[in-house]
Amino acid sequence: MTTPALSLIKSDLPEKWQEILADLITDPKELLDFLELDEADNPFSCKAITQFPLIVPRPFAARIEKGNWNDPLLLQVWPDLAEEASDPLRSTDPLQELNFNNEPGLLHKYRGRVLLTAAPHCAIHCRYCFRRHFDYDANTPGRARWTEALDYIAQDRTIEEVILSGGDPLAAADGYLQWLLNELDSIFHLRTVRIHTRLPIVIPQRVTTELRAILKNLRCQVVIVVHSNHRNELDNRVFKALSDLADDGHVLLNQSVLLKGVNDNAASLIALNKALFSQRVLPYYLHLPDAVTGTGHFDVSDAKGRQLIDELRNQLPGYLVPTLVREESGKQSKTRIA
């Protein structure tokens, strides 16, 4: 095996999140060298990374155990050959989101709230992603075209909440994010802005003084839904980022996806929820994976999910037990499994 470059994963990572975001690991061989793994033991899928490239931030890669193909963080990002498996029960748009794509960048699936794809890119490509096939080119309007979505929201007084998603909204630059948030904040009937993001977990440096000021200055209540699946994703830097956001008075929730081999056991989920709660983050949803093409190897059965929730209820207070759900196209809300 080749010797990894000394600069691959630096112990002194840059403090500026923009520099980290500009220096992501995108070459599987580079990741393997750093993790001291042999490609022959688990070849990557060229087909998979052509369709959905490998993207791993260096702070996240530094938390992966070297030499361990079964590391729960590595399993989430490695483009396994299993992604090439065909399955007629899977599709590129299992939630039929295109049916709810009312304006460029806007999805209106549920009463009272809409979702904006505020940024087309993420800091990490999770291999189970339900939007890995989403048409971001057609749903990344510039400021001029955002006017259509903003007008749509302003004209519908039943909309009280806007969800910023993507991609990852915190992958956007501060100036753009501040403009969009201020535009939303000026719509008088909006009460809540919810931000779905993985950045505070994978690049905690994103939680800057400038970002905190932007969020604190909003009239609307800010709810931040982070996405963490395993306790090993959380280090002291992540804890500091989450604690800072909680100190600013925002509601912090966590969504996880139940993934085979990653967190499909009670011990992993209990450790994760306890660690998040120590930083004032409450569990929200535990999602069963969507039926997306290329993700079948992550599937966990409904029965296994119910069993895990029962185990969590027996060992945790109710407020640390997430709701097990599946999202189904055409339903008025997520389907509660347990």
SSE layout and pairing:
Layout: H1 17-21, H2 28-35, H3 46-51, H4 58-61, H5 72-77, E1 106-110, E2 113-119, H6 143-155, E3 161-166, H7 174-185, E4 192-197, H8 199-202, H9 209-216, E5 221-227, H10 236-247, E6 251-257, H11 266-277, E7 282-287, H12 302-315, E8 323-326, E9 335-336
**What percentage of amino acids are in beta strands?**
5-15%
Radius of gyration, CA atoms, in whole angstroms: 20 Å
> What is the CATH domain class of the largest domain?
Alpha Beta
Shape: globular
* Helix content estimate: 25-40%
- CATH superfamily placement of the largest domain: Aldolase class I
CATH names the topology of the largest domain as: TIM Barrel
- Class by alpha and beta content: alpha/beta
* Structure annotation, total helices: 12
The side-by-side strand order for the widest beta sheet comes to 1-2-3-4-5-6-7-8-9
Q: What's the helix-strand series?
A: HHHHHEEHEHEHHEHEHEHEE
How many domain regions? 2
CATH architecture of the largest domain: Alpha-Beta Barrel
Which blocks of ≥5 consecutive residues have pLDDT under 50? 1-11
Largest sheet: 9 strands, mixed
Strands, total number: 9
- What would the average pLDDT be, to the nearest integer? 89
Amino-to-carboxy terminus distance: 46 Å
What does this structure look like?
The chain has about 350 residues and is of the alpha/beta class. The protein folds into 2 domains: about 15-85, no CATH class; about 95-335, Aldolase class I (TIM Barrel, Alpha-Beta Barrel). About 30% of the residues lie in helices and about 15% in strands. The chain is built from 12 helices and 9 strands. It has a 9-stranded mixed beta sheet. Helix 7 packs parallel to helix 9. The N and C termini lie far apart (about 45 Å). Mean pLDDT is about 90; it is low at about 1-10.
